[in-house]
Amino acid sequence: METKTTRAVSSFNNELKLKGFKAFQIEEDDKGTFIYSRKDFYKICLTTGKSKIHYSDRTFEQEGTVLFFGNPHIPYSWETISTTYQGYTCLFSEEFLKLSDRAESLLQSPLFKLGGTPILAISENQRLFLNELFGKIIEEQNTDYEFKDDLIRNYIQLILHEAMKLEPKEHVEQQGNAASRLTAVFFELLERQFPVETPDFPLELKTAQQYADNLSVHVNYLNRAIKEVTGKSTSTHIAERVTAEAKALLQHTNWNISEIGYALGFEYATYFNNFFKKQTGTTPKEIRKQS
After folding, report:
1. Which of 38, 214, 251, 264 has the fewest beta carbons closer than 10 A?
2. Structural contact between residues 23 and 88, judged by C-beta atoms closer than 8 angstroms
3. How high is the pLDDT of residue 44?
């Protein structure tokens, strides 16, 4: 039976997908949770309370008011320690913000980049000012004003600019050096592409360059880091993971070989066959026969 909470979450997700944007207030002692595809949306949170935030392979322990910036390409999780917690959350897609001319540089700021500063400690005066901005966003999204999206984008950019002016005050448990951190996040991002659930939506990331772009680093830096930590190149790890997925699909689905190749990013079956033969020494057809 559909409950009131289920209807609310469904309505929330429908609006988020349709508009590419949503803001809401986190109420004190609120137990409600909105579920959405984190892969698609950037996140800004202004929260007051005690929490532990795991971002990539770093852990931030915070008490008081913080401003958090979530990148959809970098894994993160949030542990609320306080019995009371309050603030605001703003979700937006890259496409929504990029309708503004200056959005590209903002999304490339240290606030959202790997190894940057995703969490800022906020003073009481700063909290009051940011509260007002988040309140204006929530108020505006409920109006019928023709250009409200433009106005909301301006408010988001103002929050980002205010954040970039603040001196970061981090309490970080460092885990490994920069190369190890980058390698860990690369593997997180690699694993997010799998399992492939349908041949209708091929892999989004197929090359080292595409992974580097998503991690906001130069491809040469990514290659050096992964080679240093694992002894293998970025492309080798991608190829090995695609090969493992190909074997699983050949053995456990009824998709034809062309569909499997397409799902794994190969436009033509010949390209897939050549890749698979180079990686395994055998053909997809032979693996399927064995299974």
Report:
1. 251
2. yes
3. 95
For the residues 247-264, what does the mean pLDDT come to?
93
Q: What are the chain's domains?
A: 4-173 (2.60.120.280), 178-290 (1.10.10.60)
Q: Which run of H or E residues covers position 87?
A: strand 86-92
Q: Using the predicted structure, report yes or no on whether residue 29 has a pLDDT greater than 60.
A: no
pLDDT digits (tens, 9 = 90+) for 67-102: 999 887 776 777 788 777 789 999 998 888 877 666
Amino acid at 33: T
d(CA 171, CA 116): 13
Report the distance separating Cα 224 and Cα 231, nearest Å.
Answer: 10
Number of C-beta neighbours around residue 104 at 10 A? 11
In which element (H, E) is residue 91 found? strand 86-92
Report the distance separating Cα 151 and Cα 140, nearest Å.
8
Residue 181 is predicted with a pLDDT of 83
For residue 247, the number of C-alpha atoms closer than 13 Å in the C-beta half-sphere is 11
pLDDT digits (tens, 9 = 90+) for 112-157: 876 677 899 999 999 999 999 999 999 999 999 999 999 999 999 9
